[in-house]
Amino acid sequence: MLLFGKGQMPGRFRKANYNACRDCDTNVMWLPLQECKALNGRLLNFLLQPDSIEQLITYFTVQSPLPPGLDEAEVQKRWSKFPFAACEVFCCEVDAIFNTLFGSEHLMAKLFSIVGTDKLPDITLSGYFARVIKVLLVKRNQDMMDYLYNHQQTLSHLANHLETTSMAEVVVFVVGAAEFSSNYATSDSLNWLKQTNLTQEILNQMRSGNAKDAQKNAAAVLAAIARSQISPLLSNMSNSSFLDQLTEYAFTSDAQVSCQALDVCIALLSPKQALPNTYSSPGDAGVPSPPTSPPAGNEADRHLKDVTIDSISAYISNISDSLDVPDSGKVLETPFGMLKPPLGSLRLKLVELLSAMLRLGNSKAEESIISVGAAQKALSLLLQFPFNNLPHTQVTSLILHALDSGTPAIVEHLFDTCNLLRWLTQAPEKVQPAPRDGDKKASDRQPIRAGYLGHLVLLGNR
Known about the structure:
The protein is an all-alpha fold. Helices cover 59% and strands 2% of the residues.
């Protein structure tokens, strides 16, 4: 299918032996998408043929080997222009094309064939595929969910390809965890997902030994589900087997896996994202209404947070010990001097987790933190890294959450055991960073103002 001038198209489509694939090998441009959007009758009659739709799908799901002897321009056309244009045809949101697609089991199987093998999909084609699936989920959600319900192995195939970020985005949309999911999905169309093993399959992608991108994307999908208000998979995340495996990854794995798993734990303890009132598709000029606040006091949400706290509390000693372990063997050169060693992502995530635990006002979480002195260690980290804004922010949040939401026990712990007032008033105002290697003027440099003073002033003004 090729781009013809408006006057040329009728004549071409009158030909009984018209073949789009043959014209694709010529220098004729792709068909104008405005003709598709304008519902050009002759063009639609051609596009609605199953063979035409199958060819379109093939362009962005299969990277076919190219015949020898093609020049660079021809290769670019085959592997870039054609998949892009085929994707754009589906994104024109023509109902007649969608009806033909959903009416054919063969075409739907062709559409999802990109994830039907163990081979890692091409990144560019995966992006076009993801865009088409998102459009179908938004515009024809019930049809798409009906197909996935009848072909649940497709969900497993998607979970097995989380190494590709575009496939992770598709999973987020499918399970109702996208930002605007409440505007295109209904509880009736999503509820059957609770009966699947999808959350466990996603979690399994975080195992040590899997590709780093798969671990990262799996954690991002689970975190999106944890923050969602409507995804039915949220209830599956409260299962003890799921939480036991998640916390095992978080506190007994290498730093890479631990940080990803901690992101999910933090998301489970964090407030749910607000629900937007309207959905604006990319082509809409309208602005979404302000988001509505999540309902307070939801019993299922409280239960999820309670069981998450229970699972995390079993590893509270690991958290405390890890706060004392620096990134051994690492040196970070910064504009102000050398960090030997730097804070490290793991310790930062652990402080963020402690802050999320104290936000809840959960007595068991507070008892666990008090028992190992984790809050005191977090306070000392702020002073150890006077120019790292990230721990400053998280430690400040930890203290404010304890003061605003905590029980008298945690407040007393902060003021008595942690000596919060003394910590605030006796923190060094100026510090002397370790000099960089080869800095000939290091001996002439004077101490400089500590970067955490702004946060300490904020706490002092409470």
